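Let us practice reading a record.
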Amino acid sequence: MKEKVVLSRSKFLIFSGISLFVILIDQSLKYLVAKNMPYGKPLKIMGNYLWITYIKNPYGVWGIKFPEWFPYELIAFLIIALLIAFLIFEKKKIYVLSYSFLFGGAIGNLIDRLRFKAVVDFIDVGISENLRWPIFNIADSSITIGIILLFLIPLIFERK
């Protein structure tokens, strides 16, 4: 007998709530930074550890340069479609948390790519003037949280 696939109300509410929260915070902070910060000039918040530095990244994750023809937007749309399919077919509700963070982050960065042909980044962490992590944003952090959850959920909730 074929199983019926249904997106439950609770899965939908969790998914849409977390995703919308991530998108709202991401886009709001990007707007505030772009409106109020000079481009490329760091504002030191916590010494050399945390700066706010407004930049636009036209490349991939961590500024990795792909060929000019690379279809960033198409890849984002495919990932978003895949996440929606995972959400619909996922039997374990706990994975909805991971999909929500991944979806919210993917949408946040896709909005930037469609508007600016680049992603607005502003979170700048490091330990000195010269030892800095690539500048990132809330959407990137959300994607990272989603990936970490994909690995942690089976370890925590599916132990035998």
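A brief commentary: The mean pLDDT is 93.
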